[in-house]
Structures are given as structure tokens and as C-alpha cells.
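dumping this here so i dont lose it again. seq + smiles for zinc ion
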Amino acid sequence: MKTWIHPGYNTGDDATKVVCICGHTFTVNSTVAWPIKLENCPNCHPTYTGKEQKIVVKGRMEKFLEKQKRIDAMKKAA
Ligand SMILES: [Zn+2]
């Protein structure tokens, strides 16, 4: 294996941490060095739980509008 082009494979104590927005965390073997953020995991996904999901995730348009509000506020302040 060419170590200078292949990323390290994190296992055991160095395994990559996965954080879901429901608060559930677990680790997976991965080449990713930073924590992985999920919007769904086996702990909260309706397929696994059999319950309707109550978590509301912000959509792209809501994020865009929030960003525009921040920009407008910065323009007014300047
Ligand atoms: Zn979850």
C-alpha cells in the first residue's frame, strides 16, 4: 500500500465517531478523521423504530433565507 496517497483506516480506539441529531452516537471503522454528522440513524429512523419521526430538519430554503437576513443586517450595520 502506498501510504503517502492512501488515508489511514481508523479502527478500534481511533474509530470515527458518528453523531446523529437525535443524540445517538456510535463509532464506525472509516478513513474519515472527523466526526460524521447524520440526520437519521438506526436509533431514530422510522423504518427501525416503527414510529413517526418528530425531528424537523431545516431545509435549504430556510437556511438560505436565514443567511439573507444576516447579510441584510450586516449591510444595515455597515
Ligand atoms: Zn438518530
